[in-house]
Design brief:
Blueprint (H helix, E strand, L loop, with lengths): L3 E3 L4 E3 L10 H4 L17 H10 L5 E2 L10 H4 L13
Antiparallel strand pairs: 1-2, 1-3
Length: about 90
């Protein structure tokens, strides 16, 4: 799928490009992707953040499969990750 964009330390899905196939949900190595109807209430704020960042001009499309970042496991259970979000 070409609906993913990559920032410095965060991935987003372009809402208008997503076809809602749900194939990315089980592929995420840390369980960070949800179907919007299954999104926990405490993560609903990410819908707006995702849409805003997906339009960021410096965030590039991901057009081929990539290995997870080496440190992805250590971030799996970290709460309040927004304070670490880099925009550019």
């Amino acid at each position: 799928m070409d609906c993913f964009r990559q920032g410095p330390n965060f991935l987003v899905i372009v809402p208008d490009d997503c076809i809602d196939c749900s194939m990315c949900v089980p592929e995420c190595p840390v369980g960070a992707i949800y179907n919007e109807i299954d999104l926990p209430d405490e993560q609903r704020h990410f819908v707006e953040i995702n849409a805003r960042l997906a339009a960021h001009p410096e965030w590039q499309p991901i057009t081929r499969s990539q290995a997870p970042l080496p440190e992805h496991e250590q971030w799996r259970d970290v709460a309040n990750k927004l304070e670490f979000l880099k925009l550019a």
